[in-house]
Amino acid sequence: MSRKGECDIGIEISNNIKRIIRRLLCWQQGQSYALLPSSDEPIDLASSPSKPRPSPESTTPPHARPKLPFRRIWTPNVLFTMLAQALFDFHLGAFASLWPLLLCTPRSQGTKTSLSPFVFTGGLGMSPVHVGTAMAIIGLTGLVLQFLIYPGVHARLGTQYCYRIFSLPFAVAYGLAPFLVRVSELSRGTRSSDSGSGGGANFLVWLCIALVLSIYVTARAFVMPATLMLLNNCAPHPSVLGTVHGIGQTTSSVFRTLGFVLGGWLYGVGFERGVVGLVWWVVALVAVAGWAGSFFVKEGSGHEIWLEGDGDHD
């Protein structure tokens, strides 16, 4: 069937688009040129619209911002901040590995009890449901502290003192954590029916768990934001802020992974030798070292080193 003489919608749309483009081009050209007066009056070239010719000063490229050489990044404050963060992330990674292990490890089935309060083995023997509940306490407590308590305390103490004061409670929480096994043994007695895995925990054990986690989460809620702020502020020059931040994040990832792996391995060693608290007390010593290192960490300004030309870009 012939369609000759019928209107083609596609062609009409194409023609309309062409007309619009032509009108826009003509309008722009009309804006670029001014109509000449019809009379014989002299034309004032100064008043005719024209683009100003750029001055020689504006055509010169701007001076590049000065950049601090890589070898000058490593100021004492940067080194101490990196070391303190490495220790912090190490014991934080170790706790992430050790806490679930302590909760789910079966209770000791031995009937012989050592006279030493530090020589004991086994875990709390919790079921998966109870392990999940104990892990949820960390998140819920952290949310409450982060949103309700942290802003006011940080505004009063500042970043540096928050980091220094709340670094020590980590060691207290790690030192007390393995004694939850002792509390479980004392509260349940030595009956064989209460030994083995798959059991729960009574009110006294849960109370002690809440105490240990409250200490740990409180310290983490204040120290973790402080480490990020101190890391950013320790950069000696604005040009190396990204470099320092990248090195800090790499250090954090490496040492948190090391803490997770070495913590689990040392837990197995202590469990086999009947001293399940060995790894916890080693991690507590690492936390003490991190707290001692916090006294050498200063809150920098982010611009401790001034280079030639810095004042031109303020």
Protein described:
With 314 residues, the protein is an all-alpha fold. Helix content is 61%, strand content 0%. It contains 10 helices and no strands. Helix 3 (76-104) packs antiparallel against helix 10 (278-293), helix 5 (159-165) packs antiparallel against helix 8 and helix 7 runs antiparallel to helix 8. The chain starts with 8 loop residues before the first helix and ends in a 21-residue tail after the last helix. Residues 56-61 and 190-200 have low confidence and may be disordered.
Keywords:
314 residues; mainly alpha
- Supply Rg: 35 Å
Low-pLDDT residue intervals, each spanning 5 or more residues: 56-61, 190-200
What is the average of the pLDDT values? Answer: 79
Report how far the terminal alpha carbons are from each other: 76 Å
Structural class: mainly alpha
| Number of β-strand runs | 0
Provide the helix percentage: 55-70%
- Backbone shape: extended
Reported for the largest beta sheet, the result is: none
Q: Report the β-strand fraction as a percent range.
A: under 5%
Instruction: Give the SSE order as H and E letters.
Output: HHHHHHHHHH
Number of helices: 10
How would the blueprint of this fold be written?
Layout: H1 9-32, H2 56-59, H3 76-104, H4 128-157, H5 159-165, H6 169-176, H7 179-188, H8 203-233, H9 241-272, H10 278-293
